[in-house]
Design goal:
Residues 1-15 form the signal peptide. This protein is α+β, with helices and mostly antiparallel strands. It is built from seven helices and 14 strands. The chain has an eight-stranded mixed beta sheet with strand order 7-8-9-10-11-12-14-13. It has a two-stranded antiparallel sheet with strand order 1-2. Strands 3-4 form a two-stranded antiparallel ribbon. It starts with a helix and ends in a 16-residue tail after the last strand.
C-alpha cells in the first residue's frame, strides 16, 4: 500500500520539479510521459511499477532491468514494453518494443527503425491527410445523423409523454365500466341458467319418450325402435346403425345429453327432410299421371293412395319419434340469453381494449429507450436485408426473423432481451434470445452491433456460430455530436 501511495505522489511532485527546466526527450516515450523519465538528483530511475531503482544511464541500454519493461521503451530488450511512434503529421501510436529495429517499418515516421540500417520513408503527412479526409467524412455523417437523432429524441419523448399521460384517464374509464360489466355478467349468467334449465327440461322430456321401459336409461333395444336411424332405408334399424349413436350398453341422462342428444336431433332433422323430399316427388308423380287416358290412371291413383298411406304412416311414426320443438317459453329464454350475451360482450370488449392500452402504456414507461427516449421512435418498426435466398428482419424491441425471400412467415431468431453494450456505451449493442430451437442445437439468438449512420439501415447479417446471428444496424440514434468529441493521439 505504501508503495502504491509513493507511486501516486512522487511522479506528481517530480513533475513539478522538472517543469522548471526543459524535459529531456527519451526514445519511445510520448511527451505526456516524459516527466516520468527525467533524471533524478541522484541520476537514478525508478521502475514505473515501483519494483526497483536503477541508474539513469541504464535507460534504453538494450538490457531489461525493470520487471514491467519500463526502462526499455526504445529498445527490443523487454518483451512486455511499448514503443511510442510520434508520427508528426498523423496520429501517434504505440507498438510492441519487439518490433523496434526489426528491419520492418511500423511507424509512419520510421522512428522504430532508428538503428536497424533500414531507411524508412516518412509518410505521416500523406497518411495524415487521408485520415483527416476520412475523419471529416465520418464527422459529416455523424453531424447529419446527430441532427436526426435530436429530432427522433423529440419524437420519442413526445410519444413517451403521451403514453404516460393517457394511463390515468384510461384507468378511470376502466373503473367506471367495471360495475356495469359485473352487472351484465351477472345478468348473462342468470339468463343462460334459465335458458339451460328450460332446454334441459325439454331434452329430458324427449329422453323420457325414448326411454320406453321408464328405467331412467336408454338401451340399444329402445334406440332400435326409432326408424329415423334407418340410414340405409331397409325398413329396420340394424345393430351397426344403433352403435353409431350408442357404443355402450345403456346411456344415463348425463351420457345422453352430452354425447347423444345433438347427434340424434340432427339425424331426426335429416330424416324428416328426406321424407319431405320423397313426399314432394310422389305428389309430382301423381300430378303427372292425372291426365293418363287409359286404365293406367286407375293404377296410378291406387299407387298415389298407397303412397299417401305410406307417407301418412311414416309421418305418424316420425311424429311419435320426433323431439318436440322448443316451446315459446324456451324460445323467449334463448332470446333473452342471446341479448344478455351481446350486451356483456360489448362492454367486456371495451374493458379488454382498455386493459390492453393500459398495459402498453405501463410497459412503455418501464422500458429502456435510451436516456432521452430517442429509441422509442423505432418501436414497432422493422428493417429488412436480403442475403442470398433469405430475408432477415430486425425489429428493435420486438422479434428478429429469417424467412425465404417472398415467404409470409419465417423462423424466429430471438426476441429483444436487453441492451448489451459495455459500460459507458450501453446502447451500442442489443441482445435477442429464446428464438426457435435449432435442430440438434441451441435456441436461436441474435446480437446487434449498432453504428452511427444517416439512415436507419440493416447493413450486415452473419452467422459466426451455429444458430447465433450477428446483425450490424446503422442509425442516427447511434450518432453523437462530432464537434464535441476530443481525439486523443496518445494513450
Amino acid at each position: 500500500m505504501l508503495l502504491k501511495l509513493f507511486l501516486l505522489f512522487v511522479p506528481a511532485a517530480f513533475a513539478e520539479d522538472v517543469t522548471q527546466r526543459q524535459l529531456k526527450p527519451v526514445k519511445g516515450v510520448p511527451h505526456s510521459r516524459l516527466n516520468l523519465y527525467q533524471p533524478s538528483t541522484t541520476d537514478t530511475f525508478r521502475c514505473l511499477d515501483g519494483s526497483q531503482t536503477i541508474l539513469y544511464s541504464q535507460l534504453n541500454d538494450d538490457y531489461c532491468d525493470c520487471k514491467d519493461g519500463s526502462d526499455e521503451p526504445g529498445t527490443a530488450a523487454c518483451g512486455n514494453a511499448h514503443f511510442y511512434c510520434s508520427n508528426v503529421g498523423h496520429r501517434g501510436n504505440f507498438i510492441p518494443t519487439n518490433r523496434v529495429n526489426d528491419k520492418l517499418c511500423d511507424c509512419c515516421d520510421g522512428s522504430d527503425e532508428y538503428d536497424s540500417g533500414v531507411d524508412c520513408p516518412n509518410i505521416c503527412d500523406e497518411l495524415g491527410r487521408a485520415a483527416r479526409i476520412e475523419r471529416e467524412k465520418i464527422a459529416n455523417v455523424a453531424r447529419k445523423g446527430f441532427q436526426k437523432r435530436q429530432e427522433l429524441a423529440k419524437e420519442g419523448q413526445t410519444l413517451r409523454d403521451s403514453k404516460l399521460k393517457d394511463v390515468e384517464p384510461l384507468r378511470q374509464e376502466r373503473a367506471t365500466l367495471e360495475p356495469e360489466r359485473s352487472r351484465l355478467e351477472t345478468d348473462k349468467k342468470s339468463a343462460e341458467d334459465a335458458e339451460r334449465k328450460l332446454q334441459d327440461e325439454h331434452r329430458n322430456q324427449w329422453e323420457a319418450e325414448l326411454d320406453l321401459d321408464k328405467s331412467g336409461k336408454i338401451d340399444k333395444e329402445e334406440l332400435r325402435q326409432n326408424l329415423f336411424l334407418d340410414e340405409d332405408n331397409d325398413g329396420f334399424v340394424s345393430e351397426d346403425e344403433v352403435n353409431a349413436y350408442l357404443t355402450i350398453d345403456e346411456a344415463d341422462p348425463e351420457h345422453f345429453q352430452s354425447l347423444m342428444y345433438d347427434r340424434l336431433k340432427t339425424a331426426k332433422r335429416n330424416h324428416l327432410e328426406d321424407a319431405r323430399i320423397k313426399e314432394e316427388e310422389e305428389k309430382e308423380r301423381a300430378r303427372a299421371l292425372e291426365n293418363a287416358p287409359d286404365d293406367d290412371d286407375l293404377l296410378a291413383e291406387e299407387d298415389r293412395h298407397d303412397s299417401e298411406d305410406v307417407t301418412s304412416n311414416q309421418e305418424s311414426d316420425d311424429d311419435n319419434d320426433k323431439m318436440p320443438e322448443y316451446p315459446p317459453e324456451v324460445q323467449v329464454a334463448s332470446e333473452k340469453a342471446r341479448e344478455a350475451r351481446r350486451l356483456f360482450d360489448e362492454v367486456n370488449q371495451k374493458t379488454q381494449d382498455l386493459d390492453s392500452r393500459i398495459r402498453e402504456a405501463e410497459d412503455f414507461a418501464n422500458s429502456d429507450y435510451g436516456e432521452d427516449s430517442a429509441w422509442a421512435a423505432l418501436k414497432d418498426k422493422c428493417f429488412d436485408r436480403n442475403v442470398q435466398q433469405y430475408t432477415y428482419q430486425f425489429c428493435p424491441f420486438g422479434q428478429n426473423t429469417q424467412k425465404d425471400t417472398g415467404a409470409y412467415s419465417g423462423t424466429s431468431l430471438g426476441s429483444f432481451k436487453e441492451w448489451s453494450g459495455p459500460d459507458g456505451n450501453k446502447y451500442s449493442k442489443m441482445h435477442f434470445g429464446d428464438g426457435q430451437q435449432c435442430w440438434n442445437g441451441p435456441k436461436r439468438s441474435t446480437d446487434i452491433t449498432i453504428e452511427c449512420g444517416e439512415e436507419n439501415e440493416l447493413v450486415e447479417v452473419t452467422e459466426p456460430a451455429k444458430c447465433e446471428y450477428l446483425f450490424t444496424f446503422r442509425t442516427p440514434l447511434a450518432c453523437s455530436d462530432p464537434d464535441k468529441e476530443v481525439i486523443h493521439d496518445e494513450f
